[in-house]
Amino acid sequence: xxxLTTSGIRNRTRARTEWMLVGVAVAALLAAPFFLYPVFxxxxxxxxxxxxxxxxxxxxxxxxxxxxxxxxxxxxxFTAHAVKEWGWTPEAGILLGVAGAAxxxxxxxxxxIRRQGIYFSMITLALAQMFYFFCLQAPFTKGEDxxxxxxxxxxxxxxxxxxxxxxxxxxxxxxxxxxxxxxRIVNSPFGMILKSIRENENRxxxxxxxxxxxxxxxxxxxxxLAGLAGAMKAxxxxxxxxxxxxxxxxxxxxxxxxxxxxxxxxxxxxxxxLVVALQNYLATSEFPVTIITGAIFMICVLLFRRxxxxxxxxxxxxxxxxxxx
Amino acid sequence: MMNAQAVAGGAGVDAxxxxxxxxxxxxxxxxxxxxxxxxxxxxxxxxxxxxxGPNGAGKTTVFNLLTKFLAPSAGRIELLGRDITHTPxxxxxxLGLVRSFQISAIFPHLTVLDNVRVALQRxxxxxxxFWRSLGxxxxxxxxxxxxxxxxxxxxxxxxxxxxxxxGRKRVLEIATTLALDxxxxxxxxxxxxxxxxxxxxxxxxxxxxxxxxxxxxxxHNLKVVADLCDWITVLQRxxxxxxxxxxxxxxxxxxxxxxMGTAYD
Lengths: 325, 265
Fold this sequence. Notes:
The structure holds two protein chains of two kinds.
Chain A lengths: L1 H30 L6 H21 L10 H17 L4 H23 L4 H21 L16 E2 L3 E2 L3 H23 L2 H11 L1 H6 L4 H27 L9 H14 L6 H17 L5 H15 L3 H14 L5
Antiparallel strand pairs in A: 1-2
Helix pairs in contact in A: 2-6, 2-9, 2-10, 2-11, 3-4, 3-9, 4-5, 4-9, 6-9, 7-9, 10-11, 10-13
Chain B lengths: L3 H5 L10 E12 L2 E12 L3 E5 L6 H8 L7 E6 L2 E2 L5 H6 L2 E3 L12 H9 L20 H10 L15 H14 L4 E5 L7 H14 L4 E5 L3 H7 L2 E6 L2 E6 L1 H6 L1 H8 L5
Parallel strand pairs in B: 3-8, 3-9, 6-7, 7-8
Antiparallel strand pairs in B: 1-2, 1-4, 4-5, 9-10
Helix pairs in contact in B: 4-5, 4-6, 5-6, 6-7
């Protein structure tokens, strides 16, 4: 009984600290565009959501997708096309991007979940490469040029997203919504089953769970949220190009998640922020970006495999409860 | 080849011993190697049935076939009168045939309580609810705690399952299995690697749960088998060489040779 109450109190204190941190972070994000370049911040938010969506699959279901660029870049194309060619409003365009990514996720997931481990990753890579080829050839994507000059339009018909502050708060809103959705999924009865599948797939099967259906559901959710990130990016930069559907983009999101901390809520956000900031900073310097990010990746894997946030959490847990490992 | 029904029913309270799980002509080939052949098996309600045999005899393969983790190359399996030969494993579990694993199968980074609650979550569609908070699972807590109490893990419910001792992990696995209230329980070496006191506890638990369900277990500890099991099937090189109660089986010439002939002690 005593153990129960102390751990209960400890959990409650920890939860309160966590909510306070989230509050501070949201306040900082609200104030950020007055101090930093809004397009840079929006890019960070898009990639942060992309990494969070990816982490839903890798960190909380145990599935390493090597094809998430298809959802990110695919949604960017869908949204850009709907807004530019069909004159859709931005919110409708984003919804189409999300729906398209989810559908793509359903098809890719349907095939990929039939295999486990490295084979799963290889199938996602292969299907994403097929999608890349489709984007290269399909007329609506405009091939090497991409869809350029996408108008940001008016949100709900009256909020001018051409103004960068309006656009920033819209992106921030979508980001918070997406991050909340992921947090909710992870901490839900469904999320519990996902974790149990990650921990021991055979055992979950032997308890009567149709593991394949849970994996597919998680895959589609992750694809849809990655699509939300890609759709926003298309509106922020006002173009959609092949860069976002290449396998390098799938690799980049793995790097971001790993750097920040797999299976932590905040890790992918920190990781994405760091990688984007680094790319921005190095873009104007002499150093080749790929070598620097590659070096960081290696240092991360060799020295702190739990990632930045994972490492901090592990240290705190060790300090907090004495003898525990 | 074997007449399980007649013998196993003899001492039971049930006048009509019910066969709840039966296999006929079970066979499994692995790329030119026959791991299991011609296995006939009848598992009865309220009986403890042991599957024994030297290492590599195919005991775990039989388990995998019965629970459909492996597809049989030939043969037929019936659970509660229903043909499950081509039923997927998760469905088999939902129909009431639940297994444990040789390597302790727990969810290491979940708490002890959550390990059991995961098993309780499926009925009522709680498994798919991604929009609700974890508080939705609170209604399962009393049942989960009651299960933990029957196996003596109630004081450890908030620890991570990974931090339990080996024996306690196996006990947790049994509690998780019982949470599904299975009709037939398949236990793959439930006492392997356990300390003396844990063996006693687990034997008691198994005896207790077998009062109103069938148990089929793979076990190496012959003393445990002698004490606990009503019926024994001996497997060697994928084939049944003997079946009967302990007295019968232990006198069987083929069984003696099989056990002496290997490095088994």
